[in-house]
Design goal:
150 residues, mainly beta, Pnp Oxidase, Chain A, two-stranded antiparallel ribbon
């Protein structure tokens, strides 16, 4: 009989890989969801329900947040997908594969989400305030064409 194990968010962390290369651990990841549009079909003489036919599947953008580091890989990737980087690439955004790997407190992989055709769409740097004591945070938002779960 299978046993369900529920994780406490304080004991888990997330590693992110882009094209198989680890870009770091992240403290927060949002947008791990999928939805299927439906089309309502009303059948004459059937008043008890409306047929729901499945349509397209869609996924929101994924947002990654972590403590700010001196590694510029995420910001450079954004630059490659826009402006002069986009022009240098033959006016094509460099689509990549990405993976979000959920690890337990001992570093053991618990779940892996693999994303296809990923492009960066927004990067945010830290907010500076002389009176603030908050940690500096880097944020990257990525668009994709879906994911699989391992």
């Amino acid at each position: 009989m299978a046993t369900n194990h529920f994780l406490d968010a304080s004991t888990a962390f997330f590693r992110v890989e882009i094209d198989g290369v680890e870009v770091g651990n992240f403290q927060e990841i949002s947008g791990l969801e999928a939805s299927i549009d439906t089309e309502d079909i009303e059948e004459g003489g059937v008043n008890g329900y409306v047929h729901k036919l499945p349509g397209r599947m869609s996924w929101p953008n994924i947002t990654l947040k972590r403590g700010f580091t001196n590694n510029d890989a995420l910001f450079e990737w954004l630059g490659d997908a826009s402006g002069s980087g986009f022009t240098k690439g033959g006016n094509k955004a460099p689509r990549k594969t990405a993976a979000v790997i959920l690890l337990d407190g001992n570093g053991k992989q618990l779940r892996k989400w693999s994303f296809v055709d990923v492009i960066p769409v927004r990067w945010g740097g830290p907010t500076f305030a002389a009176s603030g004591a908050e940690a500096l945070v880097e944020e990257l938002e990525m668009a994709h064409h879906g994911f699989t779960v391992e």
